[in-house]
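Bit of a strange request maybe. I'm writing a small parser for structure token strings and I need a real example to test against, not something I typed by hand. Could someone generate the tokens for this chain?
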Amino acid sequence: MSVPTTQHPVPYYSQWESRTLVPEFIAGQRDAADDPLWQKSGADTPQEYAFWAPRMCGVACLRMALDFWRHPVPSSVPLVRELCEAGAYVRNGEVVKGLIYQPFADYVGARWGLKAESVPDLPSSRIHETIAGGCLALVSVHKTVRTPAVEPPSKGGHLVLAVGASQEGVMLHNPSGLPGVSQEFALVPWARFDRFYAGRGVIIGE
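Reply from user aminoacidic:
Good idea to test on real output. This should exercise your parser:
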């Protein structure tokens, strides 16, 4: 039996303010502190922004979900600060632990009134059901999912937002995707997706 395609019209946000410069940031050709739009992040300094930008994939996904469900969308660094207070990020000097799913889900529910469920065992089949049921799925993949033809060295470590699904594959909004290639509604076949996917995430709904 064929499964219908579902695609939610979710607005896209990059984890860097200048989404067109993502290839330079991830290649190390440009420091995030040199992002000409860094002030839009709400950071106090370019250095604060540069510290958090590579770590804000989950924040970008949250901003997409907030916009989709017509909530005010705060700038990224103020959201980071709130998530630190909520225990979803734990910073120790230059080391950050997170995004930690359960405190993140608790924060999303308490702060924004959305339903958020931390799911440590989230098979691909449930992602499809989740999206068909009107929800979004924040899922852990390897960062090289931006170029899915490449074989990843491992699974997980980077968060993307699953915004659509079909029998063929899953559609991703990738906060560190490549402009015009893998940022918005990037279709990854299920068999390829499973090579990147760590099998865990957070389901977000109204």
